[in-house]
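#structure-requests
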Amino acid sequence: MQSRDHIVTQVHAALERDARIDPVNFPVDVHVDGEALTLTGEVPSIACKRVAISAVNELDGVGKVVDRLRLSSGADVGDGAIRDAVCDSLSRDVDFLNCTLRAMNSGRLEVIREAGGDSSGEIDLAVADGVITLDGHVISLSHKRLAGVLAWWVRGCRDVVDLLEVQPAEDDNDEEVIEALRLVFETDPLVPAAQIAIDCRDFVVTLKGVVATDEERKRAELDAWYLHGVKRVINELEVRP
C-alpha cells in the first residue's frame, strides 16, 4: 500500500501536469482519509476542475475522490441573487414547466412553484458561498444534466452540486451524454446547435462542425464541460465568419 505522502505527491503532480493548475496561484489541499481523497481549493476554470478530478481518479492507490474544487470568484454576486437567478431560469425553461421548485431562503425551504397534476419532478435548490446545490428528482438524465447546466450559466456560480435523482432510474452512457448536450445546445441562444456534431466515447466529448465566431466556439465547449459526468472535451469546431 502506498503511503499518504506518496499519494499526495502523485496527486499534486497530476494536477499540475494534466489540469495545468498553477500550485502558486491556485493551491489545492489534498486530504487522504483511508481510501477517500478530498480535493479542496479554487481553480481557474471548469475545464481545470473536470480534468483534475478525472486525472486523480486514474491514479493508482486512489479510491473515492471527493470534489470540493470551486471556480475562483470573479463576480461580486450574493447568494440571494444567485438563488433568484437559478429559480428564474428553471421556472422559464420549457423542460421544467411541470416541476415543483423550492428554494432555501434564510434557513427555510420556500415553494417557488407547485407543479400541476402531472408532475415531472421536484427540485430543491440552495446556494452557499456561490455553490449551488440541486436536490430532489427529475424524470430523465437529460433533465438532470440540463438543470445543472442552467445553474452553471448563472453569473457568480462557483460550483454545482447536482444531487438530483432520476425516477425511474436510467443507465448512464455515452448516448445519454450526447442527447443531453444536444438539449443544452438547443436551449443555449448563444450556440448554433444545428451546426455542431457531437461524439462521445467513455464520457469524453468531441465537438465538430463550423461556427461563425470564436465566442460561439468557446461557448459550445463550455456547455460541454458544464455537463454532469463529462470527463474531457475535445473542441474541433472550426471558425468561418
